[in-house]
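Help! Submission page says 'invalid entity' but I think these are all valid:
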Amino acid sequence: MSQNSLRVVWVYPDLLSTYGDQGNVLVLERRARQRRLDVQRVDIRSDQPIPTSGDIYLIGGGEDRPQRLAAERLRRDGGLNRAVANGAIVFSVCAGYQILGHEFINDLGQREQGLGLLDVISTRGEGERCVGDVLADIDEPLGLPPLTGFENHQGITHLGPTARPFARVRYGNGNGTGDGFEGAYNDTVFGTYMHGPVMARNPHISDMLIKLALDVNALPPVDDRWYEALRAERIAAATQSA
Amino acid sequence: MAGNSGPLSPRAKLAVTAGKAAAAVSRAAGRGSGSVIGGKVALKLDPDLLARLATHLDVVLVSATNGKTTTTRLIAEALRASGPVVSNALGANMPAGITSALAGGSDARYGVIEVDEKYLAGVARDVSPKAIALLNLSRDQLDRAAETRMLAEKWREGLAGSKAVIIANADDPLIVWAASSSPNVVWVAAGQEWKDDAWSCPSCGGVMQRPGDDWFCGECGFRRPTPSWALSGDYVLDPHGSAWPIHLQLPGRANKANATTSAAVAATFGVPPQVALERMYQVQAVAGRFDVVQFLGRDIRLLLAKNPAGWLETFSLIDGPPAPVILAVNARGADGTDTSWLWDVDYPRLAGHPIFVIGDRKLDLAVRLEVAGLDFRVCETVDEAVQQCPPGKIELIANYTAFQDVRRRVGN
Ligand SMILES: [Zn+2]
């Protein structure tokens, strides 16, 4: 990975881009360019091979059937697993998060094998869909301010011993397991249920990914005025709706 | 003409009366037109009322994610050339609102009915329509709407046994999937600018190929049917190859598409395209949409856009820069509470316009525009936004409840 360029791969926008997931790509791209990085963004449709030379891979949310199709095609392709073995960073949301785990429940009600990049297993909740604003504290070693997001999922995700919770919820459901965990991560692979999209509400997450990719400790500051205003409003909303 | 009051059973008559009384009470209490509450009361007393009210009407159903209210209005205008029409013109499009609308049209020959996407199959079963117009399907209200393809699947199952003529958009793969179970389809090339809900084949899940205006699945052979009607520039092409000029007061490509579909519907009832299109010209605004109102010395055009596909069509009809644009976004129940969809809207198209942002979720929109690299100003109220625009025309685009808020304030 060179110091002034960044290859961002958006995985399967034809299948996993239902919840404004392009937003994460756009925020990451914008903030990298504001740091004068040479950003190459590659959108990979599900009939194309996944390149293994990317620095950061983003995978979004989708409906149940496209989620199954995406898992089938990613397993067959194998490129994402090879990229992670080479040290690539992956950030995944909702359906994409479930695909990175060992297994999830597909649209046919069957157990579908995931990519095994995160030590998690997802099932489907019996109760009401988790919908609403979430406020959570991001796992301390990551050193990030509180997580604000919008959750909109039926899935429940259980963490295995080698996955760390990405955050612990103060308001909202997160992984839906009742232990207060939200998302999961392990080394360079991240998963979350948060929409919003999550990087629009938490630009520090995209900065963290950029820093990981460049292997640097700090980035030049950018104007975060509107992000901060939105964060304050949504954090207050999560607190009040509880 | 006896209309449809004659064949009603005593129970149905009572239900209609009770519904009207409830509607009157609701109106008196200042709760809107009362059509929905009236319909609810009536349907409770007689669950078959909707079917019975429709018995003596030639019914047309209209459903879609976008454009159904406008198209319902255009079809109603066109069919009035041939007889009296009853219609749920105000957009109350679930069974209670539909029942209420039909109960008010005892002398009508035609019922032109907008139906919410989720209720289409059920209403089609109840009212035995002569024609069903299907315009488009795309993502909408992410926090509670059914999945788009599931919706198409439900339509497909529900319409399989229908005797209605289905007038369907050949350019939307999901619509084609939904309609092609029916034996009697009239395909209309009505266009669909938004493509991001149909990259995956609704039949087999294969990746859709979309060269130019065509589309097909490379894996299972599901492909765009040959249309018999088409929108071509400012003309409707009919099945005989004749071109009829579209003259509308309503702006934009999407409304020309709505007019094309409406002309095809009218033709199935024997109304020729020329007559139908002339009558459509009468429509100036639909429930406030496309209306131009004077406010604080400016002319504001009110545009409703509820989802990414709707915003895309709206951007293509507004005046170019330097026309100022006011954007208003809420996320209340009727809008869907998940604002993530803002990131699917192609806001960079507004480059060069002065942009003003209002509404409950103006900060979500501010971040969206900042990331798009656009200049914009965030305002507290519509008044403040309007006052920052020079005298002249303003384009105001709002999602559902934001649109209602604006209408109330600007006196439309
Ligand atoms: Zn196919």
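Support: the input was valid. A stray whitespace character was the problem, and the output above is from the cleaned input. Chain A has one domain: 5-241.
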